[in-house]
Amino acid sequence: MTRLILAMVPVVSFGQKIMNTPVTKIAQIGNNSLANVRAIAKDKYGFMWIGTQDGLFRYDGFTASVYNRGTDYPPHRILNNDVSALVCSAADNFLWVLNSFTGISKVELLTGIVKEKFQISTQGRKNENFTITRMIEYHDNLYVSAEEGNIFKFNKSSGHLEMLKKIENPFNRKIEQICRVEDQFVVCFGGGMLMLFDSTFRTPLAQLNINSTRQDFHFNKYCYNGSNELVMATTFGAKKITILQSGQQYKLADNNVDEINLASDIQCISFKDSSYWVSDNSTIYRFSVNGEKYKYKTSKGPDDQKWLSAVKVMFFSGNEVWNGNEYGVSIIKTSPPPFIPYYQGDNVITKLNHCNSLLSANDSILYSCATDGFYKINTNSGTITRIGDNTYSLSAFKGPAGEIIFSNDKGTYLLNKKSRPVLISRKYKELNKIDYDLITVFANYKDSLLFMASQYERGLHIYDMKHRKLFNINTNTLPQALKTNVINSLYIRGNTLWIVCDNALSSLDIPANKVTNYVIYDPSTKLPLNIIMDICFVKDQPWLAVYGVGLVELNTEIQITNIYATPSGLQNLGLYKLYNVGDSMLLTTSNNGLYRLSLATRKIKSFFEEDGLHSNAFEESSGAMVNEKLIVGGVDGFTIIDPRKFSINTIPPKIYFNKISIERPGKNTDTANLGIEKITIPNDVLQTVVQLSAINFTSSHHVEFAWRIVENNAEWTSNGSQNSIPLIGLPQGTYHLQVKAANEDGIWSEPKELVLEFLPKWYQTWWFKLLVLLTVAGVIYAFYRYRIAQIKKQHEIRKNIATDLHDDLGSTLNSVKVFTNLAISGVKQEESLQQIKDNLNEATLGLRDMIWVLDDSLDTVDELVTRLKQYALPVASASNIQAEIKAGSEVNSRQLSKEEKRNLFLVCKEAINNSIKYSGATQINVDIKPSGKKIQITVSDNGKGFNADEVKKGYGLKNMQYRAGQVKYKVALISSPGNGTQVEIKPA
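RE: above sequence
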């Protein structure tokens, strides 16, 4: 949206008041052009509807919803882009849109959705071409006229459409207007012909031909003044049409409108608050019925005047007039505003690019020092004239005899009687020392002393006007020396001159000629203030504008008591001039905006170009108070400010949940409903964005938003001017989102609430949680059963080990006891001792076997092989038998349970023992290979063999089968006489 501001001030000229008016221009909203505005309406929710040649827009001051034929959002598709008329009635909740050439679109105001479309045709003959351009409301019906003479009646409730009549006229002219006066209708044709009908449109009740000889006579617009009269805007001025009735006879009469003295082509006319508002091809006028006449013009030059020219539609909203023409929408105020900006003169060429200083000569004449010269401005005529050449000019002030003095890069000049610039010494020889000095700021003390500060750091010039003497004080003029020669501002209060310097503040007691210097320290940083730009007093209390710091409040001892900076509402700290207005407010300029501090509330309000200023940028020394008005300048002109016209907007914005966008994987959903109170958010949502509308057209750019989610935070979160709230990462549940908005004066609306129900994601549903609970319970139970099984296994292993210890080691130790007693008694002593030795060796080996089984670090096949070697190789070697024990590399690292390790070892040990004792072999082989997830062990020898069928119960085979079965293995015996024996231990 492009918003530009111009100016407003009344001056008297030839019996009419010229209003240099501020104009807010809306050329586009987002990427959408508002060219060729045809209709403007306002709905009961406060939204503005703008109909153009390119579509329809619902505007809230921030953004606009777009309605046209080709929009990507189907609920906003209307019949055609060309909107020619709008009807918005408080009686229903719909906007009726007339689309040229096609028909009527029905838009629901609450949701903004196009509910129905009604194609208009002449009794089924769709091929007949006609142009429908006018639509008016009467009771529950809409009356629509086509240029070709067709009159249609559309019932809003039933949707019934019928053609009432095709009006034939002798001149075959087009219908240009259809007007309603109470229960009757006036149809206006080109060329100046009018016909009066009742609501049936059967036959004309009366007819009038204003100017049948002029084919260029046209009815552009009309208004109804409430007195049974129509006032028509025509190509030949304003015409008043009166309906006269005598019995059953009617008559149309025309007269000139006494209040409107325009004979030009009037494009638009409207009646509001006892005044006619009129637009011709150049500007807008207001004619009051009490005789006051106003002409509205801009002060930013003819290029911007086009926004007030050839207005096709006017709409009144509060104290604003919304005007539509080919360039877009322009908004002007019905009452004078506080700001009067000037930029470009009526001569088009002359523009005030930079106003470094301003001087008021009288009520209508101003002088401006600019970067490209010295200018004279006549606020009455709107002319801007450059005086002299285009030299950079810095300051202007009045001399001893009221002369206009200005200072530029070439020196200091005054205007002679012929308004020509001459060096100041031409009249005041004693001022020859400042002929070629550049004066920055000045102050006049009782028309006796003139103080002038030098840009070239020559200090302060003091001119005694009565005695015509020039003095100077600076950093070297002891004892009355300044702390610095860089002077930013001069301010006289009583008999004291306050000299504002870059890093110090000085005061000059004028009668005593005494200088006092102050260095002011910031209590928070303990550093002196730097770049002090200006000073003013509120009663006896000084205030400073300090660049980069803010507004600084001092006490009478010149000590800081308060600093107003960004947290207080200053949006920019590049402050320049400072003014006290009636001890009620302070105004300060900056390099980005004007700021007002209310001394009663201590609140700061900002103003920018959108509010009526010439621009956002001011110049550091450009400003003066004249007759209770402030004149301040900067980039692109200057502004006259009337603080008396500042007002407080006590009406809070109307706030709505305008649109809710729900982003989901591969799908986005937009919900628009101004009355929405609750919405359900799907469980696959990625992001939810809530878009707000706060209706406050008087100053929409100052609207501030705040929000909170009651369940999460009791405090409000400021959203600034951002009118959308993104909601991401909220878990399932119901939330209450509350929003509010404040206008430009900090007046907050009542909170508006939206209930958000976030559906649970699949992993947040009750059935999923139950499934997880059951799964966890199952896992815990399975782990429990597993642990019980493991404990049982451990217990069984311990039991077996205890049994082995009891059976093997116990019996062995018992034998040792027996043989020990025999050896002691001397019976077979040598034989008994040998038997004791053998038994102890056997017990030691058995104990080592038990320890090996219990060692957790030896639970692999490789450790089984090692243990078998430790047992078998010595025993086999003692029997002259060669033993080879090996395992494939693929099984070496396989883990064995303790029970599996123990039983397989004992089975292999039994098989090896049998081969050594009974086979008569010279070679024993133990080979371990993989068998699925388990292993297979083959113990073979090259002994004499035997008949396996005859000795199945011998050789400890039953014991081997039992041990193998305990760990789910089985033992197979393969042997035959002369072929050795092979024992296979493999998984069962």
